[in-house]
Amino acid sequence: MFCDEATSGLDSFMAHNVIQSLKSLVKQGRTILCTIHQPSSDVFELFDEVFLLAEGRVAFSGSVDGAMNFFKSNGHTCPINYNPADHFVITLAIEPGREEQCREKVNKICDNFEASSAYKEIKSKTDELANHPEEHLKQMMETLTDSSRYEASIFQQVKSVFWRSWVTNIRDPMVVRIKFAQTIFFALVLGLVYLKTSDSYDQQDIMNINGVIFIIITNLSFTHVFGVLNVFPLEVPVFMREYGTGLYNVAVYYLSKTLVEIPFLIIIPIIFMSILYWMSGLIRDADAFLVATGISILVSNAAASFGYVISTAVPSTTAGLAIAPALMIPFLLFGGFFLNSGSTPDYLVWLKYISWFFYGNEILVVNQWEDVTQISCTTSSSCISNGALVISSLNFDKDNFYLDIGLLFALIAAFRIIAFLILLFRAKRSH
């Protein structure tokens, strides 16, 4: 670690605390280089070695005691009860009006040091390093390979980073309250728009129910994608610096940042569905409600996972906000509401199979209409008379129910792995 003027602007007490902290790191096996201007005597005593420069030359390099003895041997004995640092500075200073005499004194000190055995030993080591850089580089790499770059255990890393991420997430209670208030507000508004209190269905209800199902998926998706876009861009500079110093690895940071979001990815969909489900006329069945709520949680997590991909890849939150809508629209189009599932062009069918809108929509539609046996028809023209016909009209298949759930889990895992790999690539490239 290199510290440039670590005590500048601090009083003597704070300066001593800073250097004492650095000293404790040295005792843990770290090497610390520190430039310092006129340290107090108690601060100077904490240093193990000193490197003195004067007029662009090395006046001394070695232990503190060695510096005292070297200056004494050159006729510049440090007075008793005098700060050695001040003594060295005054001895090597170029005083106005005495420039020539001072430079002669400084040059003599530097010449004497270059003639000393300590200098010759340093010179031989640097020459050896310059003549055989490959061998020393190999030794250094073997040392790094044999030891972990992380001083703390994995458990300690996870505990510390997770706690910091959690505190950051709930630091402003107003933001948390706004999240829940916004969820309740939109659930009530949509519930009033699609309000239905009867248990029977007619032809108009088919469009309304399918519409509210897709609105549920769309609202949860956009809420959670945009909710996580700022998770990584705001902290990347801090993360890169802390990762570079070996405080924790990429997996620990990524895992901690994503785990703290899970409570919100569960609670918010539950609140949203608990209000909107019963107001909008979805099938009044406890099991169907629990399934719909569970699927809404999976959809929320899939959307958030996709948001992590964008968040780890973009340089700023502003860039993420600009890119996210453009990337989400194709998934939205192939969700089975705006474009019938059976009419998807062959060359774009792959988009349907990586769209959480499609899987969520198919599951919720099947969950809603599978047990509906009668839909009233008031016209003489052909109409859809039961829930099975509604499902088939959208080219959905009730046999895909569990497959769709599995694929939602797969999308969650895939998006999160991709996001992790992007973050890992950025971390490795920066170091």
Describe the structure.
It is built from 19 helices and four strands. The strands form two sheets. Strands 1-2 form a two-stranded parallel sheet. A two-stranded antiparallel ribbon has the order 3-4. Helix 9 (173-193) runs parallel beside helix 13, helix 14 runs parallel beside helix 19 (401-430) and helix 17 packs antiparallel against helix 19 (401-430). Helices cover 66% and strands 4% of the residues.
In short:
By secondary structure, this protein is mainly α. Helices cover 66% and strands 4% of the residues.
Fill in the keyword field for this structure:
4 strands; 431 residues; two-stranded antiparallel ribbon; mainly alpha; two-stranded parallel sheet; 66% helix
Strand residue content:
under 5%
Mean pLDDT: 87
Give Rg in angstroms. Answer: 35 Å
Mind summarizing the main beta sheet?
2 strands, parallel
Q: Biggest sheet: strands side by side, in what order?
A: 1-2
Number of helices: 19
What is the number of E strands?
A: 4
- Shape field: elongated
Structural class by sheet pairing and helices: mainly alpha
Distance between the termini: 15 Å
Q: H/E order of the elements?
A: EHEHEEHHHHHHHHHHHHHHHHH
Unreliable runs: none
Approximately how much helix is present in the residues? 55-70%
